[in-house]
């Protein structure tokens, strides 16, 4: 089972440090990790550093990985691909970029078909990317990430443009994927109630560093909400053992 740990991780643009000192315990395959924090806290920068897209001090430590750094797949907020490509072409191209070859194998076509079907966008296969709504484009971006079959997924706000039904569908799918394939799924997300519902672990980024990490019920607390988000809130127990945040006021 793959594990990932961050050791004193930092990221810089030029000479300016954007995040620093991010250290966590090891995250394990099968877990969904919600990465939360205020706007501009450094969540996207952290993902880019973990994916090796920007430089900085510290280490991303992998154990029991079959693919090494190549097994880390980053999904940015924007959609990759020319607006003239069809949905199917853009997802297949994301797959072929792993090991460019002219020949397209039958199992690659089946993988694309299965992922599009699982995300409920098979009917969009031959629509051009430029014709899609923002929510549809976001689902295609998720498909482009999944088709790479990574060991570790870094998903930057994958549900931000989706309606409530699609949000729950995608988060359920990602949780099932993590458990069935023993993948570590990191999801940057603003909705803390969704984080409480779907995440096994939570990493809080605030002021360019880690404010805390661990099991969701240990990290998302009334004290954290007051300190990091500057809100007075209550966390109440709901049906099926779920916890829910109720905001009373700003601090």
Automatic annotation (TrEMBL):
PROSITE patterns: ABC_TRANSPORTER_1, ABC_TRANSPORTER_2. The keyword ATP-binding applies. Residues 4-232 form the ABC transporter domain. Pfam families: ABC_tran (PF00005). One of its GO terms (molecular function) is ATP binding. InterPro entries: AAA+_ATPase, ABC_transporter-like_ATP-bd, ABC_transporter-like_CS, P-loop_NTPase. SMART domains: AAA. Keywords: ATP-binding, Nucleotide-binding. This is Putative iron ABC transporter ATP-binding protein. It comes from Pseudomonas synxantha. The lineage of its organism: Bacteria, Pseudomonadati, Pseudomonadota, Gammaproteobacteria, Pseudomonadales.
């Amino acid at each position: 089972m793959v594990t990932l740990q961050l050791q004193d991780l930092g990221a810089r643009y030029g000479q300016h440090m954007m995040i620093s000192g991010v250290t966590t315990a090891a995250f394990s395959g099968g877990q969904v990790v919600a990465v939360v924090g205020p706007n501009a806290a450094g969540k996207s920068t952290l993902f880019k550093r973990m994916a090796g897209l920007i430089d900085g001090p510290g280490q991303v430590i992998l154990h029991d990985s079959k693919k090494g750094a190549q097994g880390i797949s980053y999904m940015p907020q924007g959609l990759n691909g020319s607006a003239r490509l069809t949905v199917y072409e853009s997802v297949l191209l994301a797959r072929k970029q792993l090991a460019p070859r002219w020949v397209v194998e039958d199992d690659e076509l089946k993988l694309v078909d299965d992922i599009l079907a699982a995300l409920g966008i098979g009917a969009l296969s031959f629509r051009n990317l430029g014709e899609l709504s923002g929510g549809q484009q976001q689902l295609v971006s998720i498909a482009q990430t999944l088709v790479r079959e990574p060991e570790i997924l870094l998903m930057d706000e994958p549900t931000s443009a989706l309606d409530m039904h699609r949000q729950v569908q995608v988060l359920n799918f990602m949780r099932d994927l993590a458990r069935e394939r023993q993948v570590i799924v990191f999801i940057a997300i603003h909705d803390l109630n969704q984080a409480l519902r779907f995440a096994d672990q939570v990493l809080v980024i605030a002021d360019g560093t880690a404010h805390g990490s661990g099991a969701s019920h240990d990290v998302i607390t009334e004290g954290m909400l007051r300190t990091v988000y500057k809100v007075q809130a209550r966390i109440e127990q709901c049906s099926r053992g779920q916890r829910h945040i109720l905001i009373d006021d700003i601090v």
